[in-house]
């Protein structure tokens, strides 16, 4: 009797196990979802992965009239020449300085703004402020630079107001000493509001029972912020920081090109503008491609290292 009961239970367990579907069955089941993914996959393949094959130019003395196959192979000569260029190291220095300022001043700005927006009680006021701070993201850099020129330029509103009161600040738009702070302020004004979207989503995903429990225990708003809100968005903040480190050597090509002539190449030359002026304008395709390839490899290495560091601190990172 006991044996028959055990056998019956075993049969029930076997019958209730989910059957593994074959790849063909899964493709047949999910073909509509896969079809929706095809345009996005093709976009990345055509415009991101296929152009990677052009990095072979970095190892050749490329000439457009000879083509990639006809251009002679020079190995690492372009990289050696690049590392001996003082202009390249000046561009690297400017890029790292601007990146450090943006990590220090811009990266925390969307987090702080998201915390402030989350603290607003009125939903209409919150939505109105969100709409206002999102709008600058949709303006082109041409418009943003022109607006800053009209406000703090030599003949701008702020400069004119201060001059009438005996305070001379000069033309901040053409001052090399303050240029790096200026471009950081421009980035904050333009993209700070847009950057709050992800952090606001992370804050709203926090279980409200945690706040209620903290309030019952007597925690004020500062304690709730420190012990509930910030730990709740820590993984998202770390993920965004890792992604930002991967893009650490890109500080805005269009923004720099528009203001490079006003302050000079010594203050505004970054790696992206160096590649443009030496590659496209001067025709030194091999060396400029070598600079771009080095930039990409350094960014990939930083993402890998930062992700490993996140795993050591117990966070998920961006991949396992």
TrEMBL record:
Pfam family, any one: BPD_transp_1
Write down the membrane topology: Multi-pass membrane protein
Kindly state which keywords UniProt assigns to this record, in alphabetical order. Cell membrane, Membrane, Transmembrane, Transmembrane helix, Transport
Q: Where in the cell is it found?
A: Cell membrane
Q: Where are the transmembrane segments?
A: 31-50, 103-121, 133-152, 225-246, 285-306
**Main localization (coarse):** membrane
What Gene3D superfamilies does the record tag this protein with? MetI-like
Residue ranges occupied by any ABC transmembrane type-1 domain in the UniProt entry: 92-306
Q: Which InterPro entries match?
A: MetI-like (IPR000515), MetI-like_sf (IPR035906), UgpAE/MalFG_permease (IPR050809)
Family the entry assigns:
Belongs to the binding-protein-dependent transport system permease family.
Name the record gives this protein:
ABC transporter permease subunit
């Amino acid at each position: 009797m006991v044996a028959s009961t055990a056998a019956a239970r075993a049969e029930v367990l076997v019958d209730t196990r989910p059957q593994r579907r074959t790849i063909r069955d899964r493709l047949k089941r999910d073909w509509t979802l896969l079809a929706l993914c095809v345009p996005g996959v093709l976009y990345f393949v055509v415009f991101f992965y296929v152009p990677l094959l052009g990095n072979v130019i970095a190892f050749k003395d490329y000439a457009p009239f000879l083509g990639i196959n006809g251009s002679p192979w020079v190995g690492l000569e372009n990289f050696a020449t690049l590392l001996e260029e003082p202009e390249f190291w000046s561009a690297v220095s400017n890029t790292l300085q601007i990146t450090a300022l943006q990590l220090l001043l811009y990266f925390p700005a969307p987090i702080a703004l998201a915390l402030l927006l989350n603290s607003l009680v009125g939903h209409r006021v919150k939505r109105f402020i969100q709409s206002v701070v999102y709008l600058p993201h949709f303006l082109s850099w041409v418009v943003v630079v022109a607006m800053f020129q009209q406000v703090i330029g030599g003949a701008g509103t702020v400069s004119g107001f201060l001059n009438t009161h005996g305070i001379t600040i000069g033309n901040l738009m053409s001052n090399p000493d303050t240029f790096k702070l200026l471009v950081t302020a421009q980035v904050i004004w333009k993209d700070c509001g847009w950057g709050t979207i992800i952090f606001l989503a992370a804050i709203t995903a926090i279980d409200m029972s945690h706040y209620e429990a903290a309030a019952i225990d007597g925690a004020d708003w500062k304690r709730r912020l420190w012990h509930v809100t910030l730990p709740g968005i820590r993984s998202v903040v770390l993920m965004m920081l890792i992604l930002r480190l991967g893009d650490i050597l890109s500080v805005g090509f269009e923004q720099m090109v528009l203001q490079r002539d006003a302050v000079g190449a010594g203050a505004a030359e970054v790696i992206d503008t160096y590649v443009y002026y030496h590659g496209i304008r001067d025709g030194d395709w091999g060396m400029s491609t070598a600079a771009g390839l080095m930039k990409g490899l350094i960014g990939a290495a930083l993402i890998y290292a930062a992700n490993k560091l996140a795993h050591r601190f117990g966070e998920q990172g961006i991949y396992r």
